[in-house]
Amino acid sequence: MSIKTEESRVPGTNGSFAETCTKLHRDMLARGQSSYTQEELLEISKMDSNQELMKCVQELLNRGIVRLLESKDRKVLFQPITEAEAVKINNMSSDEAMVYSYIEAAGREGIWTKTIKAKTNLHQHVVQRCLKSLESQSYIKSVKSVKYPQRKIYMLYHLTPSIEVTGGPWFTDSELDSDFIDSLLIVIWRFVASKSYPKCFKKGGMDVEQYSYPVSNNHNLPSLEEISRFIGSSGVTSVELSLSDIRSLCSVLEYEEKLVQVDNLYKATWQSVLEAGGGRYRGVDVFAPQHNQIFSISDTYRVMNPLGDAEESKGDTLFLDSWMST
Amino acid sequence: MSARKGAPTELPLSMKTKSPESFLFTSLLKLVLGEQAAYVFGILLDHKRLTLPQLQKMCKMKMSAVKKALVSLLQLECAVYFAETNFITEKSQTYYSCSFTGCYKFLYANAIINDIHRDYGELHAAIVQQVLVNGHLTSGEYLKNVDGAAQAEEAEKAFSILVIEKWLAPIDEMHFQSKYDLFHKVFQQQTAIFNAENKGKVISQAKKLQVIKEETRRKHQQLMGEDKVRSRLFTSDSSSMFQKVNPDICLTFNLDRYLKRLRSLHFASEARHKVGEISSRIYALILNRLEAKSAEVENPELRLEKYLANVGQSGVGLDPRVVEQVRGRYELKDQERGMNITVSEVYKELVRNGEKFGVTVGSVKNTIADPSLEFGRKRKNEDSSNGFPGVKKVKIEVDEVLERLGSHDSDDENEDDDPDNPDPRIMSTLLQHLKLLAADPKFPFLVETDMGQFHVPYTRLSPILAKHVFKQYVKAIIGPDALKVLNCIEDKRLTDEKAVSKLVLMKEASVRNILGRLLSFNIIELQEIPKTQDRSAMRSVYAFRFKPQPAIEMFKKSILFNMGEALEKLEQCKKQNKILLDKVNREDVKGREQELLLPSELKQLEEYYEYESTWITKFGRLRTAIDVFEFLTA
Question: Boundaries of each RNA polymerase III Rpc82 C -terminal domain copy (chain B) (predicted)?
Answer without folding.
Answer: 158-465
